[in-house]
Amino acid sequence: MDIFEQLLGGLQTVITPGNLGLLLVGVTVGMVVGIMPGLGASAGIAILLPLTFSLDPTSAIVMLAAIYYGAMYGGTITSVLINTPGESSTVASTFDGYPLARQGRAGAALVLCAMASFVAGTVGAILLSALAPLFSQAARSFGPPEFFMVVMVGMLMLVVIIGGNRLYGLFSALFGFALGTVGVDIGTGAQRYTFGSAELIGGIDFIPLAIGLFGIGEILYSVYLNQHAEDFPYIKVSTKDEGFWPSRREWKESRWPTARGSVLGFLVGVLPGAGATIASLMSYSMEKSISKTPEKFGKGAIPGLIGPEAANNAASAGSLVPLLTLGIPGSGSTAVLLGAFLLYGLRPGPLLMTQNPEFAWGLIASMYLGNVVLVLLNIFAIPLFASFMKIPLRIAIPVIVVLCTIGTYTVNGSIIETWLMVLAGVLGFFMKRFGFSPAAAIVALVLGPIAEETLRQTLLISNGSPLIFYQRPVAFGLVILFAVLIAVPVAYRLIRGRSLPAVPGEED
Amino acid sequence: MTAITNTKSLFLLTMLIGSALYTAVAFDLEWTTTAGRIGPGFFPRILGVLLVITAGWALVSELTGRTAESPGPQEQTSADQQASDDQPAKLGDTLLMIGLIIAFVPLLLYLGALIGMVLFTLITLFLFNRGRPLVNVLVGVVFPLSLFLLFDRGLNATLPPGAFDLVPF
């Protein structure tokens, strides 16, 4: 079956009144979540996950994925209007977006961003449609040794690329792996870290932890940063404003940055561990370096805004490639999505596209539709979404806490899990405060059991010999990559006498 | 700065102690089974040792005043700079919020979902959004009621019933 036929099949799955309604809900929630500084896409997905249990898997994932890429659109609004990124992936949009708004070009900036995001999101969906089956086919030859190394390389990339202190990032990842060992050991049936508790025999549930770390933790961190006491002054935008629509020159200036950002963003997004934030910052650097007027960057240069915007949207599509074909999430948001897949009994990996084609292609098809809905919402409802910024965080805080708590409770009706969520929230706050990475912990919690299972299978196949990693070409290649990822920061430090610069991490 | 360093050191110490305990339990689990395959303690022991090393390294770096890596992203730096003043109000608000969240769970347990949600929302709003009583009451009643109806009626989800049957419907 060719790609086009598969895509049509996917569209047929998605174009039902129910799924279209859920898609609309998802992109709208994503926009709102993206607009609110202090709340990321990962929090939005984690908090709404319990609400989707009554839905069928395809419908649920369509909505949750829509939150993910919808947040990329929403985060731009705060970046441009109040110089505060709503998402980590829209940090680069503040560099030239806010100066443009100060020059009275807020409407034009947002419209251009919406169009760039639409083009990039659609390009990303097209590339995803083309590459996912190829990746999936290549990954079918993977066995346990390859999968184990893919997980290890993915985690290491996340730790190396992640923002902040890499040692703390490593600890966060190890912490997540450790949490994943709680429960019954699959290989031997022995109980680990259950301390006689029946609740812990099934392991530490993913949902309370994800909601706690990302939802409650982020709220507490926002309170700590005193964001609840602030009323953000913002620049009013209306479609009736004279300067709302971009000029012909501005449209022309945005063409090539959109194209470049789309391709770069998708390729960066494919790398496990990299993601929308890194893609947008790389795009900004690239646009500045090839520009004939680099001195204009930081003062309202159109390429400086549009390139990163396109990159972050394309990257959100790119990050679904390793997620769907290998089951490797590259960020907190995709880790929560992976957690959702597993909860619905779907196992992302090489066989997903053949065993569950209606789900995989339904998800990809929904992205085309989602991008259309988003560009219309963004262009014609900018003033409405911008007005969400008038809601002070101090009013949103109890709403979010109640949603988190009730959402967690409704999953299994367990008060223990609710307490676990509270504990994870407090821990998440301290992790963020001191530079640890809740995202790495969640990714590791999801991947840890997979890593242990594949390692066990590997050693079973090889009769306990680690040489199997050298005897299989792909696994050996991944071992080399693993070694390089460790060696590069160390070598850099030894040669330059200082550490490899960290970049703002893909926390969402 | 001293206050942050002390709190951070305390956090790192807690992580180190937790890691050590995890590792101790791991060494009680079998490394390999009698059949020679990897046992339940294989992964945990490796993880535990690495956790202790990383936590210890981080703690020593913090106590000796050296960070292990380059400075973090701008947000972290600015948060630390803000926190370096360690104005009691910010930490106080955070601790207050933590206390409210902790208190929310027993509220749900004993008073049930609807009353628990209403009480928590009202108390939090009146503490953090002072001077806006009408908004606080509106949000404090409408939102929890909407959520209750969504979960209880719309989704047929299990909500905390409370120790007493206080809600007639």
Notes on the protein architecture:
Chain A has 508 residues and is mostly helical. Chain A has one domain (3-139, 146-231, 241-496). Chain A contains 22 helices and 2 strands. Chain A has a two-stranded antiparallel sheet. The mean pLDDT of chain A is 85. Chain B folds into 2 domains: 2-85, no CATH class; 88-154, no CATH class. The longest helix of chain B has 25 residues, at 2-26. The model of chain B is unreliable at 68-86 (pLDDT under 50). Classes of the chains: A mainly alpha (508), B mainly alpha (169). At the A-B interface, helix 8, helix 9, helix 18, helix 19 and helix 20 of A face helix 1, helix 2, helix 3, helix 4 and helix 5 of B.
What letter string, H or E per element, gives the SSE order of chain B? Answer: HHHHHH
Rg measurement of chain A, Å: 22 Å
Radius of gyration of chain B: 24 Å
Structural class of chain B: mainly alpha
SS summary, helix count of chain A:
22
Characteristic key phrases:
heterodimer; A: 508 residues; mainly alpha; two-stranded antiparallel ribbon; 22 helices; 2 strands; B: 169 residues; flat
List the helices and strands and how they pair.
The complex is a heterodimer of chains A (508) and B (169).
Chain A: H1 3-14, H2 17-35, H3 41-48, H4 57-82, H5 91-102, H6 106-139, H7 144-161, H8 166-179, E1 183-184, E2 191-192, H9 206-224, H10 248-270, H11 276-290, H12 302-318, H13 320-326, H14 332-343, H15 352-355, H16 357-380, H17 382-387, H18 393-412, H19 415-433, H20 438-461, H21 468-471, H22 473-496
Helix pairs in contact in A: 1-16, 2-4, 2-16, 3-4, 3-9, 3-14, 4-5, 4-6, 4-12, 4-14, 4-16, 5-6, 5-12, 6-10, 6-12, 6-13, 6-16, 7-8, 7-20, 7-22, 8-20, 9-18, 9-19, 9-20, 10-11, 10-12, 11-12, 14-20, 18-19
Chain B: H1 2-26, H2 42-63, H3 74-85, H4 88-111, H5 113-128, H6 133-154
Brief synopsis:
The complex is a heterodimer of chains A (508) and B (169). Chain A has helices at 3-14, 17-35, 41-48, 57-82, 91-102, 106-139, 144-161, 166-179, 206-224, 248-270, 276-290, 302-318, 320-326, 332-343, 352-355, 357-380, 382-387, 393-412, 415-433, 438-461, 468-471, 473-496, and strands at residues 183-184, 191-192. By secondary structure, chain A is an all-alpha fold.
